[in-house]
Write a structure and sequence with these properties.
- The chain is mainly α.
- The chain is 45% helix and 0% strand.
- The chain contains two helices and no strands.
- The longest helix has 20 residues.
- The protein is flat.
- The protein starts with 6 loop residues before the first helix and ends in a 33-residue tail after the last helix.
- The mean pLDDT is 76.
């Protein structure tokens, strides 16, 4: 039998995960866990559709606007 998991236990687990994996790795782990759960549910229901985004089209060279600075960079070492 599993005990009831309340909000305090969830917070403690999240704090431990933050300490173990670090703040940079947690979003990646969350995405991979969510993707794995979606794939598992899809395999149980027989849904074979892909939820991934279609590949983005690259912008042509003429479509990009040049980046300009509003203030010119000056050398203040003199």
């Amino acid at each position: 039998m599993l005990p009831n998991i309340g909000p305090l236990e969830v917070v403690v687990i999240l704090i431990i995960a933050l300490i173990v994996f670090g703040p940079k790795r947690l979003p990646e782990l969350g995405r991979s866990l969510g993707k794995g759960i979606r794939e598992f549910r899809g395999s149980l229901s027989g849904d074979d559709s892909d939820d991934e985004e279609p590949p983005r089209q690259e912008l042509e060279q003429g479509d990009r606007e040049p980046v300009t600075d509003k203030q010119p960079v000056t050398d203040k070492r003199a």
